[in-house]
Amino acid sequence: MGSYSNNITRSDFAIDLKSTLFSGQSFSWNYSHDKHHYYASVFGNNALLLRQIDSNTIEFRFTGNAIGGLPIDEFIRQYLSLDIDPEQIFPDSFQEFYPEIWNLIKRYLPVRVIRQDPFETLVTFMCAQGIGMGLIRRQVSMIAERYGDKLVIETETGSLLLHTFPTPQALAGADVNELAMCTNNNRARASNIIAMARSFESGALALTCVQAGVCPLDTLRDSLCVHRGIGMKIADCVALFGLGRFDAFPIDTHVKQYLWEWFGIEAARSSLTERNYRYLQDEARKILGEKYAGYAGHILFHCWRTEIRKMTAF
Length: 314
Description:
Layout: E1 7-10, H1 17-21, E2 30-31, E3 39-43, E4 46-54, E5 57-62, E6 66-67, E7 70-71, H2 72-79, H3 92-97, H4 99-105, H5 118-126, H6 133-147, E8 150-155, E9 158-163, H7 168-172, H8 176-180, H9 187-202, H10 204-210, H11 217-225, H12 232-242, H13 253-261, H14 274-288, H15 293-308
Antiparallel strand pairs: 1-5, 2-3, 3-4, 4-5, 6-7, 8-9
Helix pairs in contact: 5-9, 5-12, 9-10, 11-12
């Protein structure tokens, strides 16, 4: 790896870097256990190291000058959604109607929803069906190790080994049995990922992602759901975490639980059929507003898992 220097990004708004990177929206970050306590991940063929200095300041290290055509400082601000004022995420009515919940979640406002690469997000959440976060992280790591490129970072305290995330071409050409070794021996899941990668490589799925910011959310979700292995929840996760659609509201077991326990939505006690899924989304948006429903939902999700369920695995 080439040379790099320490740089600083300061935000007008507070950020909780650890909870942001390890709250169930990304599974490609690694934590260095040396004295510097960096979080490390790979973008393109370069490694990015982040470290929290204080509530508004992030130190970063990166080889090169840009990611995705953006200067590195600008990329970090966009990636970590530092342009979003946390005080604007929940509508004013939320504090009025749900004061106890607000008092519980307001310290989680520094948890940012990050803007990730759409292809990586697709693969990640196709790996995430019905399993815990530790196993998701293991699958994503195995896929990168087998189909990505090795990258060694030299730090003051030694070498850090990372891997680039595979390209669509690499996964499109994968053998299904070999890839299944990285997906908990789930051959159907491996086959779905290969088919999705081929669609992305051909340009069909990539075009859907390019148009994500301007098309109606239902149209975007329907376009994603035509692919095997992508249901409504995965499509909404990809929209929220990979395509910057903060209005997308994914629903899983934890979300169903807090919709009932915190907001008394009776339908959240029933099975998550397609009809009920859509109904619960409509009810959630009445509470959280349209623009940032998914962003607010992720803060509620992280708070629920942490404060109520006392879960520590992310």
